[in-house]
TrEMBL record:
This is Protein ABHD15. One of its GO terms (molecular function) is short-chain carboxylesterase activity. Residues 1-23 form the signal peptide. It comes from Anabarilius grahami. The lineage of its organism: Eukaryota, Metazoa, Chordata, Craniata, Vertebrata. GO terms for cellular component: extracellular region. Belongs to the AB hydrolase superfamily. AB hydrolase 4 family. It is found in: Secreted.
């Protein structure tokens, strides 16, 4: 009910402001950001196909030229397909796109089976496995012998399960994936069993969850998708784990890259207020227990996302100098910046962004284009319109354009690496040293069908106890 009210109020507000926004903002979004010199060749290949069809180029792939990039452009049709949005359609409004993707009610046919995973410090995180079927099938478990790929979905850092996430689960199931949503401590109904919240870019809990998924589905490859600010956690995990991440490929939908400056400046005032209010509502449930760790008055009286993050994790709100996580604002981001270990990422990562994203902010200041132009593992799919995790089109079918793009990306990267493996095996049989032109920067772990965990999984979890509910 609250989602309906919020969406209706926002629609009325935007209906009033839309003519003004259209008048003053159309010119700023009329052209697409040109890729830099190194990625110009890839972008031109897409643009030329669109111009031949008489369409306006609204999508660009920005990346370092490589064999994998050429393969993606050849086999991912979504990468070379413009977003079909008429000039006066409501989808031209980035704010309406954002609200539609986050709050618009959706009659989801997907149900979830929840696993509560007890961590090494006795904390709890929840894994919601998506299944299709009636409610009485909710207790059905997926087979550990299944070879179906697992799609690990990391929602935004505020824990809100959006329409975008539900649509992604539905699309993944239709393509043969086993979708599972990772819920942080205290979020989305997960009990808070320890007086500890997960810091923005701390991948410790996610690392244990991935090991559990690997134990439960040893025959299936793992792919990862993050939404919005949840991309900070995914990028931190991929950077810290490197080639030992057990993930074959990953994608980030509307990621926030420069997180410290984002918390300091914040999104536009309306979205800033909505995010701050939602976080306060979620934390109010644990006000008493959090009072043992932080000054809750500082949390619930904070007027910005930065002030709340500081009150939760930095010295200004912590009780006692020995409390874990105490430190300055700068020290906090030295530990939690998603880009701190970005050079260690060893798998292909697709980032889907729009220029008119009202949450991330100005694309010139918030998109690290140098990362995509210099690192062969990162690919930026940039659109002129789409808002924040919206990407709704006029001719939209059952699958959202951004979801179709990442599913094609996963299939293409898997096929590319499989073709490389076949070429290497054929070369070995012929007695040829080397395998010709291959993707040099590829992670070794993606070659393995059944990676062996380097850790003693039984020392981490006590499998004799039940951690599921």
């Amino acid at each position: 009910m609250l989602e309906w009210i919020g969406a209706a109020c926002f629609m009325i507000l935007m209906a009033i402001l839309w003519p003004v926004v259209k008048c003053f903002g159309a010119e700023s979004h009329s052209t697409l950001l040109l890729p830099r010199r190194e990625s110009k060749r890839s972008a031109e290949r897409c643009d030329s196909k669109l111009e031949a069809q008489g369409e306006s180029a609204t999508v660009a792939l920005i990346c370092k030229p490589s064999a994998l990039a050429n393969y993606l452009l050849k086999h991912c049709m979504t990468f070379c397909k413009s977003l079909s949005i008429s000039k006066w359609n409501w989808r031209m409004s980035s704010s309406l796109q954002t609200v539609y993707g986050a709050l618009w009610p959706f009659d989801c046919p997907v149900h979830f089976i929840r696993d509560h995973l007890q961590l090494s410090d006795d904390g709890l995180v929840a894994l919601d496995w998506a299944v299709v079927g009636a409610a009485h099938h909710k207790r059905r478990r997926t087979s550990s012998n299944s070879t179906s790929p697992v799609l690990l979905i990391i929602p935004n850092s505020f824990g809100k399960i959006t329409r975008n996430v539900l649509k992604l689960c539905e699309a993944a199931l239709s393509h043969g994936y086993l979708p599972v949503i990772f819920n942080r401590r205290s979020q989305n109904g997960t009990p808070l069993c320890t007086v500890k919240l997960q810091q923005f870019g701390d991948p410790t809990d996610l690392r244990e969850a991935v090991r559990y998924i690997r134990y439960r589905q040893p025959a299936g490859q793992i792919y990862a998708v993050s939404e919005s600010t949840g991309s900070g956690l995914l990028l931190s995990y991929l950077g810290e784990c490197g080639s030992s991440s057990y993930v074959t490929a990953a994608a980030c939908l509307s990621p926030v890259f420069r997180c410290q400056s984002w918390f300091e400046s914040g999104p536009t005032w309306l979205f800033h207020w909505a995010l701050l209010l939602y976080q306060k509502i979620c934390l109010s449930r644990y006000k008493t227990v959090l009072g043992e760790l932080v000054h809750t008055d500082n949390i619930f009286s904070s007027c910005s996302l930065k002030a709340m993050e500081e009150a939760l994790f930095c010295h200004s709100g912590l009780k006692g100098a020995t409390t874990e996580g105490a430190g300055s604002w700068e020290a906090y981001w030295e530990r939690n910046d998603p880009l701190r270990d970005i050079d260690e990422v060893a798998i292909p990562v697709l980032c889907v962004c729009s220029q008119d994203d009202p949450i991330r902010g100005d694309d010139q200041a918030t998109l690290p284009l140098e990362l995509f132009e210099s690192n062969p593992h990162f690919f930026l799919l940039l659109t002129a319109h789409g808002g924040h995790c919206g990407f709704s089109t006029s001719d939209e079918g059952p699958i959202v354009w951004s979801h179709q793009a990442l599913l094609e990306f996963f299939r293409a990267t898997t096929d590319f690496f499989a073709a490389e493996e076949r070429a290497k095996l054929a070369a070995r049989r012929r007695g040829v040293s080397g395998a010709g032109k291959t993707f040099r920067h590829r992670s070794v772990s993606t070659c393995k069908r059944l990676p062996v965990c380097s850790h003693n999984i039984h020392a981490i979890y006590n499998w004799q106890r039940s951690y599921t509910r």
